[in-house]
Each structure stands twice: as structure tokens, then as C-alpha cells.
Write a structure and sequence with these properties.
Elements: E1 2-6, E2 9-10, E3 20-21, E4 32-33, E5 41-45, E6 63-64, H1 66-73, H2 77-111, H3 116-144, H4 146-164, H5 170-184, H6 188-195, H7 200-228, H8 234-242, H9 244-251, H10 259-264, H11 268-282, E7 290-291, H12 311-341, H13 344-357, H14 367-377, H15 380-390, H16 396-413, H17 420-448, H18 451-482, H19 484-503, H20 522-527
Parallel strand pairs: 6-7
Antiparallel strand pairs: 1-5, 2-3, 4-7
Helix pairs in contact: 1-11, 2-3, 2-6, 2-7, 2-8, 2-9, 2-12, 3-4, 3-5, 3-18, 4-5, 4-6, 4-8, 4-9, 7-8, 7-14, 7-15, 7-17, 12-13, 12-14, 12-17, 12-18, 12-19, 14-17, 15-17, 16-17, 16-19, 17-18, 18-19
Length: about 550
């Protein structure tokens, strides 16, 4: 009697090498044959005359998923190019537009005679736009692709950023800056696209690399303000600050679509072409076998963040992210206020004089102010380096706690009425560490949640950060009018509580890969250890454990 035998196939190996096998194969759904894999069935005769039913055939391991291919190809020339382009988006579409808020506020306060609450609203409206659009950009990226969503958001920000420079009155610039914030809400899609092409071992360091571009963007914005503001004014600053987005929009044509998105949308051939392109650019062998879709878990729901395993983690992380954004952007806004006055005591005495004269009294930023602002902005670079050095040594939790504590301590030292030079040094140290805490949170949060709830967990934390950024202008610019010391106490106390919250996080993720499922033994997750047997665990995030 005839039975069936599979012709010899090329087996997938992570090194790109092939071997010959006579094992039986079952073809699954959503498979695409590549690199000489054959699945034709050929009748053969067994000696005992027995037929081998199809259902008893052994499953093959001659398959691979996108995350397997990314791990096999590794980090190379393609990822370096992608790092630069993603970093350009982060610097031009995010960092520069955020940094400009601290420069624009005192200028409009003087030129248009705005009260402090309207100056604060000008900053807050950007974050309102970001909060209202983040879900929309996520849906567009899920439906039409990461690259499509990113290009639309960049062009949107470019258009309204340039229009902001032509705003005739306050109400116009308020609306236009809100629309700029709406476009900025799509910037995180660049990091999503970036992460989906990164092997696991390079993921944490590359996320920190993106923060280097944030620092570059903020420094570039200050340098641009030093050149433009004294001669051309704030309108040209807004226009010129938007132009780097045009460069990114052009470079977007080089960007490939996410291979994971292509596979999930049923376009496996395009995904294979993208993976082959990466392998060619990196000079690495393309994995052999059939590309398949990884098993998809149910998408996470809000209640999944509040299961007994993650309830405290979620609540503590929400407060940590809120405190990060609240303190970071608050310090950025306070810096210009401090430099205008010279020191904290001068601010306090100046406010009393202002009340007696005119509530709209203001001072333009001087050349010395811009110089000191540049020095404090440069603190972002050592902040990245310090975080990069300690995060894998003392762990994520302690890194965040240390960052918050140092910021809180530096805030309290400002009570001493220090001179301008010491003020600059304290602001430098405080900004370096609060930016480092932000970076540690960006590394920790995706690591602590399993695949099904990772995007949801990171998204809700980002939402809480924007709430903090929305509130902080009314503390740094409005409350400061009443009491500079109360303002410092609010920021210092918030970060001190955030340091305690970081220590109480139940899970340390140092040395642990991205988690595939929340159903693994909780005892192992609590200590963040990987006591697995050697091998590879396939997950939606492509991690290896």
C-alpha cells in the first residue's frame, strides 16, 4: 500500500546554515515557501505494507517567525541607519518642539503682554493635543502600517509648525500649537517601528541611544535660539525649528514597513523581501525555511493591568511616569525663570515688586540666559551616559530611585539663595538625573509587562506622563508668581515620593528578557531570574531566554 513521504527539505538554522532531514512535515496555515523548501508529497511503499496516516506525521521545525529572522540576522548596518533616521524624528519632531516651549513663553509674555496663566496654557495645550491624538495615531499605524502613520504625523507637525510662525494673535497660536501637539502624538510610532527591527540584546541600549538624539535636539534648539532670537525673532524660530522635519519626511522613503506588520496583514511576500534586504545590508545569511505567523495572544484589556500580579506595579509606574514628566518639564520651564532673576531669592523679591507695580511686567531672555540655558541642556548627555553605566549594574528600580532622589536633593539646595554659577550647576545635575530617570522608566516598563499587555501598559504610563506635563506649567509659571519656595517644595516632594515608589516596585527586570506570557511561574518573575534550560523561546516580541 502506498504512503506518503516528504522530500528532503532545508531546515531553518539560526546561523543561516542548512542541513538535510528526512523528517515528516505538516504544512500550517499562513506559510510561505522560500529558499528552496519543497513540500510535495511522494507515494512510497513500506516493507510491511502499512500506510502512515497523515495525522501521525511529526511537525517540522523548518519554519521561522519574523522575530527569529531579526535575531538570526542580528544588529548591523541596517539598524545603524535606522537608528539615525529614528533619532532624527525623535530630535526634530519631539525634542525641539518641546524645548521651544521654554524659549517661546517668556518672549510672548513680554511681546503680547500675556498674564502668567495664558503663558502656562500655551505650553499645556501642546500636551492636550498629544494626549488626544496618541490613540488615533496608534489605530492608523495598526490599520495602514507604522511607516504610513509616521509619515502623516510628521507632515502634519511640519505644516502646523510652520503656520505657527504666522499666528497674528494669541488665540491663533494657541490653536496652532495645539495642532502641533496633535501631530507630535504620532512620534512614538517611530520607536515602535525601530524596536521591531532590533534583536533582543541590542534593544535596551538602542532605546537609550534614542535619548541621545533627544539631547541633540534640545541642544540644537537652544543654539538655534541664540542665533535667531536676537535678530529674526520668535516667528522665524518656529519656522526654522520645523524644517528638520522636512529632511525626515524625505528620508521616510528609505524606511521599510515593519515586517511584523506585513505578516500580520497577510503580506508575507513583502515581509520576506524586507528581511532579505536587511540580511543583505548587514552581510548576514537569510534564515532558511518557511515564514509563519506567530501565535497571537488576546490583546490586553485594562483589567489585565490590575490583576494581583500587576496591580501594584501598574499603580506605582503610573505615579513614576507622572512624576518624571511633571518634574522634567517643570525644570525646563523653571530654568528660564531662574536665569531671568539670577537666583531664587531674586525671584522672590522680584515677585513682590511686580505685585506693587504691574502684574504684566516681564524680562526678555539675554545672551547670558541663553548661554546658561545651553549649559543646563547639555546635561542630557551625561544623564544618558550615567544611566547607561548604572542601569545594568544596580538595576532598573534603583536607577529610577537614585535619579528621583538626586533631583529632589538639588531642588532643596535651591532654598539656599545660591549665586548664578552654583544655580547653573544645580540645575545641570538635576536635569541630568531626571532625564536619566525618564530613560530608565522607558527601559523598565516594556520589560515588566508580558506581550499581551505590553503596549497597553506602556501606553497608559505614557498617558500619565502627559497628564504630569500638562499640569506642570501651572506650577512652574503660575504658582511661581505666588511663592517660589512652595513651587520648589512641590517638585522636591513629588520626586521624593517617586523615589520611594521606585523602591517598592515588586519586580526587578535586570537581566530578564521580554516576557511572553503572564501565566509563567510568578515566583520566578518576582526575582526576575531566568532559570530556563538552554534554548530559544519564541514570543511575539522575538525575545530569547
Amino acid at each position: 500500500n502506498p504512503c506518503f513521504r516528504i522530500l528532503r527539505v532545508v531546515k531553518f538554522r539560526r546561523t543561516g546554515e542548512s542541513s538535510r532531514s528526512d523528517e515528516d512535515v505538516i504544512s500550517g496555515e499562513h506559510e510561505v515557501q522560500i529558499e528552496g523548501v519543497r513540500t510535495e508529497l511522494e507515494p512510497i511503499e513500506l516493507e510491511d505494507g502499512a500506510a502512515v496516516p497523515k495525522e501521525f506525521a511529526n511537525p517540522t521545525d523548518d519554519t521561522f517567525m519574523v522575530e527569529d529572522a531579526v535575531e538570526a540576522i542580528g544588529f548591523g548596518k541596517f539598524q545603524w541607519k535606522l537608528s539615525v533616521i529614528t533619532g532624527l524624528a525623535w530630535a526634530s519632531n519631539y525634542a525641539m518642539e518641546m524645548m521651544i516651549l521654554s524659549i517661546l513663553a517668556p518672549q510672548l509674555h513680554c511681546e503680547w503682554r500675556l498674564p502668567s496663566w495664558q503663558v502656562a496654557l500655551l505650553t499645556s495645550v501642546v500636551f492636550v493635543g498629544m494626549m488626544s491624538s496618541s490613540t488615533l495615531w496608534g489605530n492608523i499605524s495598526d490599520q495602514y502600517g507604522r511607516k504610513t502613520g509616521l509619515k502623516i504625523s510628521v507632515l502634519w507637525t511640519l505644516y502646523y509648525g510652520i503656520l505657527s510662525g504666522f499666528a497674528p494673535v494669541y488665540s491663533w497660536i494657541l490653536v496652532l500649537r495645539g495642532l502641533v501637539g496633535f501631530g507630535i502624538g504620532g512620534v512614538p510610532q517611530s520607536v515602535t517601528l525601530y524596536a521591531e527591527f532590533l534583536p533582543m540584546k541590542a534593544r535596551a541600549k538602542c532605546i537609550l541611544l534614542i535619548e541621545v538624539f533627544w539631547a541633540i535636539g534640545t541642544v540644537f534648539e537652544v543654539l538655534l535660539a541664540v542665533v535667531v532670537m536676537p535678530t529674526l525673532g520668535w516667528r522665524w524660530l518656529l519656522i526654522l525649528s520645523a524644517l528638520p522635519l522636512l529632511l525626515f519626511a524625505v528620508l521616510c522613503f528609505w524606511l521599510p514597513e515593519s515586517a511584523r506588520y506585513d505578516v500580520l496583514s497577510g503580506n508575507q511576500e513583502k515581509a520576506i523581501a524586507t528581511l532579505k534586504r536587511i540580511a543583505t545590508e548587514n552581510g548576514a545569511p537569510m534564515p532558511l525555511g518557511k515564514l509563519i505567523i506567530s501565535r497571537q495572544e488576546d490583546r490586553g484589556k485594562m483589567r489585565d493591568l490590575f490583576t494581583p500580579h500587576f496591580r501594584w506595579t501598574t499603580l506605582l509606574l503610573w505615579f513614576i511616569w507622572f512624576s518624571n514628566a511633571f518634574s522634567y518639564y517643570g525644570l525646563v520651564l523653571l530654568t528660564t525663570e531662574f536665569f531671568q532673576a539670577g537666583d531664587v531669592c531674586s525671584i522672590s523679591s522680584r515677585r513682590k515688586e511686580v505685585k506693587a507695580k504691574c502684574t504684566l511686567t516681564c524680562e526678555y531672555l539675554t545672551e547670558e540666559d541663553y548661554t546658561d540655558l545651553l549649559w543646563t541642556t547639555l546635561s542630557e548627555f551625561p544623564g544618558v551616559l550615567v544611566t547607561l553605566w548604572i542601569i545594568d549594574r544596580i538595576g532598573r528600580k534603583k536607577t529610577m530611585a537614585l535619579s528621583f532622589f538626586v533631583f529632589s536633593f538639588c531642588s532643596l539646595l535651591l532654598f539656599l539663595c545660591v549665586g548664578r554659577n552654583v544655580l547653573t550647576v544645580l540645575l545641570f545635575i538635576a536635569r541630568a538625573f531626571i532625564s536619566g530617570g525618564f530613560q530608565a522608566a522607558y527601559v523598565y516598563t516594556p520589560e515588566v509587562y508580558p506581550t499581551a499587555t505590553r503596549a497597553l501598559g506602556l501606553g497608559t504610563c505614557s498617558g500619565m506622563a502627559r497628564v504630569g506635563a500638562l499640569i506642570t506649567p501651572f506650577i512652574a509659571q503660575v504658582m511661581l508668581e505666588s511663592s517660589v519656595y512652595l513651587t520648589l517644595v512641590v517638585y522636591s516632594g513629588c520626586c521624593l515620593l517617586a523615589a520611594v515608589a521606585s523602591c517598592f516596585l515588586p519586580i526587578e527586570t535586570k537581566g530578564r528578557g521580554l516576557q511572553e506570557s503572564s501565566h509563567r511561574e510568578w515566583g520566578q518573575e518576582m526575582v526576575g531570574r531566568g532559570s530556563h534550560s538552554p534554548g530559544v523561546t519564541r514570543s511575539n516580541s522575538g525575545s530569547q531566554e
